Amino acid sequence: MAFLATGLYGKDLKPQNGAPLRLVLPWKYGFKSIKSIVSIRFTDQQPKSFWQKTGPEEYGFWANVNPEIAHKRWSQASHRMLGSDERVPTEIFNGYGEWVSDLYPNHDPGDRTLFF
After folding, report:
1. What Cα–Cα distance (Å) separates residue 20 from each residue in 15, 41, 43?
2. Is residue 116 a contact partner of residue 46, using CB atoms and an 8 Å limit?
3. What does the pLDDT look like over 1-18, one tens digit per residue?
């Protein structure tokens, strides 16, 4: 459910859209996502991310994908539709469960710890 974009609307990406290369994560769009790629480094160890360093207690894996696990300061059982005051029930994995849930077979949904 992730892809690399080099263009937008049939044209090359502009700097304000993340040029020259942007990682697109539709099911986590705008949430803990990089905005542009300026270099790629291969390593055998996963480096700590910005969020792991600055707020490890704030957002765990389930912070925005499981509506039954509330964030420590708010519920995520429903969300407001963009451009409206209408609230709708939040779906597990933000509606992408059919495609992504099997990527996490050993993760306990009740586990509120970080999953990086």
Report:
1. 7, 16, 22
2. yes
3. 678 889 989 999 998 888
